[in-house]
Design brief:
The complex is a heterotrimer of chains A (506), B (363) and C (301). Chain A is an alpha/beta fold and 506 residues long. Helices cover 31% and strands 26% of the residues of chain A. Chain A is globular. The N terminus of chain A is likely disordered. The two termini of chain A are 30 Å apart. In chain C, strands 1-2 form a two-stranded antiparallel ribbon. In chain C, helix 3 packs antiparallel against helix 4. Classes of the chains: A alpha/beta (506), B mainly alpha (363), C mainly alpha (301). The interface between B and C is large, with 58 and 56 residues.
């Protein structure tokens, strides 16, 4: 894939010496970046490398401490998204900035209605035109809450087009899509590039960056490592720049014979948000010493499955036997008592941010926290000191949880759960938002529990993670199990089809 | 030391802000703001009688302040202390009129318990609606306040109207239902000790017991508390009823300690002032008691400023509201500044003001 | 029949301040803010409207004074709930206590202690079809039902401004990313909402009563908040709720002067509307979908 033919003399956007500090963390340090019309520019880096911060600065959602932004060679001051839109910059953020109860049209014209009285016709025309030109199909009168994630993303792109942007920033746009939707997105982006737009594609997925981009900038620890034409480099080279050392692809799994079945889910159905069906007739078993990965595009029932298994949601039908104890429909307290360890997708929903590490570590077993009715404060402290050491948590027992880093918060949660040596573990998105070191730590802890004979259900949107540490995979689509695959024999295309709802045909 | 200095700066800012905002009103009334504040804050403490009056008028504020602070600590926004207090007063007066010459030692606990029960009962419906159906308690607790007042009025204009005078007041309660006076030649009554004892008890339970840890966890992170196996619904229900009971005791204490009968003007908005007291005391019981004493000092001072300086005593209400607003404003400003310096604000803003809708554990 | 018309006419009259309040509070809450300052704002509107008219002799200046006071109290609520991001409950209660205190303080200072003595020349009834029928109403009642409610509904639904208000109340992050100023829309909603509430309060002093008495609002602000939630943030459903409330209120007023009804404790009838609203919340509350950003302050970063 070659860059567009005649490059203009000046870049559309130029970032010069951008620095941004959050407390002790330098998120960006002296970053330079030029974006040219008609190119797709990949911005590559690990979690926490500063990609998102940099683009939030360009879109006016963050103010840099140092540095300038030039548009068409002229210095500009971007203090809010309004300023960014004014100079032709649009952004599709990771969490979509869409108003769910409103229609597609209302979302598109929001902030740029062109008159006091709403006139949706122009937006409707645009939607139809864009559908033809760029393959962005979406019905203008539907409510956002009724759209799939892929459709919502198209609305975000339409919003930017409606604002006549010349620079389009996409922050990890493929993270929430099926492989098929990703292909469609890439077709759209190719057409937009051909129309002269500058596109920023933020990712940490090497194959996508190699496939789509013309140039790529690699960030590490907030600094630019390299900016290079994509066809002058290979994936291995990019990977080593990204992680700062030659990347090794390892398979940490050791073969072990699965033991007795510890978790047995049968005929499980449950309602989700707005009381719509979220799980229908889900059946699976997990044996001792086995990790079962649950794959699927987000919103296909994984959250509800994790909630039901954790005692946070009552199923409408079915049974969940954990070591012979029925836990379906039981309270969190009863599920904990049945020996199930639970690590939810949102750490902040499991830990009380305003409370100390010590109190959070005892929270699931308050009946052991007192001598009689009175708190055993020495015991709670001793327990915390012990766990802090065993799980190498960088914090003191009295530190308030919300002041810790994401990795340490996750360790507090792991410590609370794993110290009980649960025989069944339900874990969701355990490494989301963590840096490389913390990610490796969390995965090794899960593998250690597997060696010790725990049955683990792992829900993750990170396909690499699932393929790396699970033994078997199930794929959820629309609340049903669309397919079952052995992790070692899994093929990504086949998984993609299953995630998109093509059941068991491959 | 840094923490102490921060606290002192915050307090200084609050005092300064309140003074600057309220001074023009004092000048409007033709008085010197400095003289007026001297009258408000200092003069009540200069005589034995008025100093004891400060303690007397602190009693309902300590109780409603503790009631509101306890509820807020659990993330239960009880705005209904006013109505709960009135119902406690009704129950206390009812017992007081029913008994005759039984022993005080037998009667007084019954009076207090009746007040507590009535307050808790008045808090029950909003608490159940919140816990079972996720209906925001702010509106429901609030709307029951005028209803309680109407019940008091109905009783006083009908069945409980004083048969001799016909005034909208109940007849006097029995001697045995009246709180003993603690200090001779003053109005300081048993309610003061009851208030301090309840404040101390609530402090101990919250900070030193397992149940208190549960309450704090539910207040700071309802979802996380539920995830950890704590029954959020049951905890909230317990707290809401306890909060109502404490406000109810405040009502019974006003009847048995001050009025000796049920009257329509029994509460000068004590339930709402309780919100001021709780906020000013940062929801911690020792400081809540101090805040109640400060507001009581201001109440007594506003009364005498009305007589001595001709500044209408309603200025006391203006100052209380201003202190409340300036306090939350200064705290929010400092917290924002502190946070902005410290790190990227990762957690959602709002300090848990959003009421979570829990599902009920039917188990 | 006369009794029925009488009750209907009184219903429209008693609903008027609630309609002003409901439309105003709907704007505020659709923008994501629960304004508990509304009770005090109605109170201050009633008092300052009365005071301005008493001093100047002009009813229009009375309304203007109420609007100014309303806008100012909306701005103060904005300072706390938008700029400083404090708890909306506490700020609202503080605002209500402060506004009632200020009104009573100034009332005491300038209008003496003998409350209710000072009367003003209040608004006259418009009688397009002669006296004593349901069209015999104050101009402000016509304005409330024929201008404020339909216009308020249309602006919220069909204008850019209304779209902005709804967007900042549902998802301020999205509104910000689309280039809207969250603060602008939230302050605007608060100031408009509070101005309407203040006019609703002034209606009581300038039209129905012709004087100011202590405790004049008597919880109407709280009723408005309940009606807005009862109407699930839709203006017409809120207005309908106001009519039902005012209907019950007016009916009990008429009933208790009838023979045979004097034994009924009418205070308990007065309590009925509050209980009806709580019951309605209990019945419809299970599936209430609050505005997405209800009670949440917004701050970028």
């Amino acid at each position: 894939m070659a860059a567009a033919g005649d490059s203009p003399a000046t870049p559309v956007v130029e970032l010069r010496s951008i620095s941004k500090r959050f407390g002790d963390v330098l998120a960006n340090e002296g970053v330079n970046l030029s974006l040219w019309g008609g190119e797709v520019h990949g911005v590559l880096g690990e979690n926490g490398a500063g990609k998102t911060t940099l683009m939030r600065i360009l879109y006016g959602l963050s103010i840099p401490d140092e540095g300038e932004i030039y548009v068409d060679g002229e210095p500009v001051h971007i203090a809010s998204p309004k300023d960014a839109i004014g100079v032709g910059i649009g952004m599709v953020t990771q969490h979509f900035a869409l108003v769910k109860p409103m229609t597609v049209t209302e979302n598109i014209i929001l902030g740029r209605t062109g008159g006091a009285i709403l006139n949706p016709d122009r937006a409707k025309d645009l939607v139809e035109e864009a559908a033809d030109r760029y393959g962005l199909h979406v019905e203008p009168d539907r409510r956002l809450s009724d759209l799939s994630v892929g459709e919502q993303q198209r609305v975000e792109i339409l919003k930017a087009l409606y604002r006549e942007c010349r620079v389009l920033i996409l922050d990890e746009p493929t993270a929430v899509l099926t492989p098929q939707e990703i292909k469609a997105l890439f077709v759209t982006l190719d057409k937009l590039r051909d129309s002269g737009m500058a596109i920023v594609f933020i990712s940490h997925k090497l194959p996508e960056v190699m496939d789509l981009t013309d140039r790529v900038t690699v960030l590490r620890h907030g600094k630019v490592v390299h900016t290079i034409e994509t066809d002058e480099v290979d994936a291995a080279g990019l990977a080593s720049w990204m992680v700062g050392r030659p990347a090794e692809l390892s398979d940490p799994r050791t073969h072990s014979e699965p033991g007795a079945t510890l978790l047995e889910v049968s005929g499980l159905s449950a309602l989700g948000r707005l009381d719509l069906p979220a799980l229908s007739d889900v059946n699976f078993e997990v044996a001792a010493g086995e990790i079962l990965g649950v794959a699927g595009v987000s919103g296909n029932g994984q959250t509800e499955l994790a909630e039901v298994l954790s005692g946070m949601r009552k199923p409408t039908a079915g049974s969940v036997m954990a070591e012979g104890t029925e836990i379906a429909g039981k309270s969190p307290k009863q599920v904990i008592a049945a020996g199930v360890g639970r690590i939810p997708e949102d750490r902040h929903e499991a830990l009380v941010g305003d409370m100390s590490v010590a109190n959070n570590l005892i929270l699931e077993h308050l009946d052991e926290a007192g001598k009689g009715l009175v708190l055993d404060r020495d015991g709670i402290r001793a327990n915390a000191l012990d766990l802090i050491e065993r799980f190498s948590i960088k914090a003191g027992p009295d530190d308030v949880v919300k002041t810790l880093s994401g990795g340490n918060i996750q360790k507090v949660l792991l410590a609370r759960v794993l110290v009980r040596e649960p025989r069944v573990i339900v874990v969701s998105q355990p490494t989301r938002g963590l840096d490389i070191g913390a990610t490796a730590y969390v995965r090794s802890e899960l593998l250690a529990m597997r060696r010790q004979g725990a049955a683990i259900v792992l829900m993750s949107e990170d396909l690499d993670e699932l393929l790396e540490i699970s033994d078997r995979l199930i794929v959820l689509y629309d609340g049903r199990i669309a397919g079952r695959v052995d992790a070692e024999e899994a093929d990504r295309d086949q998984l993609g089809l299953l995630m998109a709802g093509h059941t068991e045909v491959a | 030391m840094v923490k102490w200095r921060r606290g002192a700066t915050t307090a200084g800012l609050i005092l300064l802000g309140t003074f600057v905002i309220t001074a023009p009103f004092i000048m409007l009334a033709g008085a010197n703001p400095f003289t007026a504040y001297g009258e408000f804050l200092v003069s009540p403490l200069t005589s034995r009688y008025s100093a004891l009056e400060v303690l007397v008028s602190s009693i309902p504020l300590i109780l409603t302040g503790v009631s509101v602070a306890l509820a807020f600590r659990a993330g239960y926004w009880n705005i209904g202390a006013e109505g709960q207090l009135l119902m406690g007063a009704v129950a206390g007066a009812g017992v007081g009129m029913l008994v005759s010459d039984q022993s005080r030692i037998l009667v007084l606990p019954v009076v207090i318990l009746a007040g507590a029960a009535a307050g808790a009962l008045w808090a029950l419906v909003p608490a159940l609606l919140r816990v079972k159906m996720g209906i925001d308690e702010v509106v429901t607790t609030l709307l029951l306040n005028p209803v309680a007042l109407l019940i008091v009025t109905a009783l006083l204009s009908g069945p409980w109207a004083d048969p001799e005078t016909g005034f909208p007041e109940s007849e006097r309660i029995a001697e045995s239902a009246q709180f003993p006076i603690l200090v001779p030649r003053s109005r300081l009554h048993l309610g003061f000790l009851v208030g301090l004892a309840i404040a101390g008890l609530v402090w101990f339970v919250l900070s030193r017991t397992v149940a208190g840890l549960r309450v704090r966890a539910v207040g700071s992170g309802p979802k996380a508390a539920r995830f950890a196996g704590i029954s959020v619904g049951r905890t909230l229900l317990t707290v809401a009823l306890t909060s109502g009971a404490i406000a109810g005791i405040a009502g019974a204490s006003e009847v048995s300690g001050i009025q000796y009968r049920l009257t329509g003007g029994l509460s000068a908005g004590f339930g709402y002032t309780g919100i001021v007291v709780a906020t000013l005391g940062a929801l911690a019981m020792p400081t809540v008691v101090l805040a109640a004493l400060l507001m009581a000092d201001l109440n007594v001072g506003a009364g005498s400023a009305g007589r001595v300086l001709g500044v209408p005593s309603q200025l006391g209400d203006v100052i209380q509201a201003t202190v409340l607003l300036v306090t939350v404003g200064v705290l929010a400003y400092r917290r924002y500044h502190h946070k902005a310096l410290k790190s990227e604000a990762e957690e959602a803003p709002g300090d848990g003001v959003v009421s979570e809708v829990e599902e009920v554990d039917s188990s | 029949m006369i009794f029925l018309f009488d009750v209907l006419a009184a219903t429209l009259r008693n609903a008027t301040p609630l309609v002003f309040g409901v439309v105003g509070e709907t704007y505020t809450e659709r923008a994501g803010i629960l304004n508990l300052g509304i009770e005090g704002t109605m109170y201050a509107g009633a008092f300052f409207g009365f005071a301005a008219t008493a001093v100047t002799g002009s009813l229009e200046l009375g309304i203007l004074a109420a609007i100014v006071v309303g806008v100012a109290s909306g701005a103060v609520m904005g300072l706390f709930s938008v700029t400083l991001g404090t708890s909306q409950h506490v700020a609202g209660i503080g605002l209500t206590l402060g506004l009632i205190g200020i009104s009573e303080f100034i009332n005491r200072l300038y209008f003496g202690s003998s409350e209710g003595l000072r009367r003003i020349e209040s608004y006259q009834l418009l009688e397009p079809f002669g006296p004593d029928n349901i069209f015999s109403q104050y101009a402000l009642t016509y304005i409330a039902f024929l201008v404020v409610a339909p216009l308020g509904w249309w602006v919220l639904r069909s204008t850019s401004f209304g779209l902005g208000i709804r967007a900042v109340g549902e998802n301020p992050e999205a509104a910000d990313a689309a280039g809207l100023s969250v603060s602008f829309y939230r302050y605007s909603a608060l100031m408009i909402g509070s101005a309407l509430a203040a006019v609703g309060g002034a209606f009581i002093t300038l039209a129905t009563l012709g004087t100011f008495t202590l405790g004049i609002i008597a919880g109407r602000g709280w009723v408005v908040i309940a009606l807005v939630i009862f109407g699930r943030w839709r203006i017409w459903r809120g207005v309908f709720g106001a009519l039902v409330f005012a209907g019950v209120f007016s009916l009990q007023l008429r009933l208790r002067i009838l023979p045979g009804w004097d034994a009924v404790p009418f205070e308990l009838l007065l309590a009925l509307p509050y209980l009806v609203v709580i019951a309605a919340l209990a019945i419809s509350g299970r599936n209430v979908e609050y505005p997405g950003a209800y009670l949440k302050p917004y701050r970028r970063d």
